[in-house]
Write a structure and sequence with these properties.
mainly alpha
Length: about 70
């Protein structure tokens, strides 16, 4: 009888551990995706600023050379 009780509690603990692991994996994945999106946003903004600056420099270079 005690053995059956131990196996039941062991199964319950396995279920609890599985649920906790799934919740932790979900939270970690959500955090990683959020951080990646934030980093990509800043990289995109930096690339846009560099591109716009390059356009202005290119235009100003053409203006000075033709003038």
């Amino acid at each position: 009888m005690p053995n059956e009780g131990d196996s039941q509690s062991g199964g319950l603990s396995k279920i609890i551990v599985t649920v906790v692991m799934l919740a932790a994996a979900f939270l970690i994945l959500r955090f990683v995706i959020g951080a990646a999106m934030a980093i990509l946003k800043w990289v995109f903004l930096a690339a846009a600023v560099v591109f716009i600056a390059w356009l202005f420099l290119r235009d100003s270079g053409k203006g000075s050379s033709s003038g």
